[in-house]
Amino acid sequence: MSSKIKEVLFKECEAFVNKRLQTVEEVISSNQKALQSETKSSAGDKHETGRAMLQLEMEKAGQQISGINQMKLVLSKIDISKSTEIVHLGSVIETNSSNYFLSISAGRIIVEDKVYFAISVLSPIGNLLLGKKVNDEFEFREKKILIKKIN
Fold first, then answer.
1. Per-residue model confidence (pLDDT) at position 115
2. Of 129, 57, 52, whose CA–CA distance to 94 is shortest?
């Protein structure tokens, strides 16, 4: 397994985070515009409900920004040039069932016709993988999983 695969997986995770950030920023921007136009519109219950709904949307977007910043922090801790025999943050793990990139929860990524799952160390499978070595076996969802390769 080349470090090129790890590099591509890392860049895909960065792109995933940047795309989410862009989407949330667009939501915030459109909500701010809507809030300004709500202020100019008529008073009354309908006006108050509209403002409250926009306020809730803004809070939700703020929480999403917080989550995105957390993902950026995790990515900043990954050294893609580092390769060890023990699974750690930034490892690419090939098993008898699936391939994983221990980083952030970014889902399915295809590199060189192989499917990898970008998963967080906090995910159930990520937590089980941490600290394991090649040929270690563990059980996940009543299935025995064998680690074949770590990079």
1. 97
2. 129
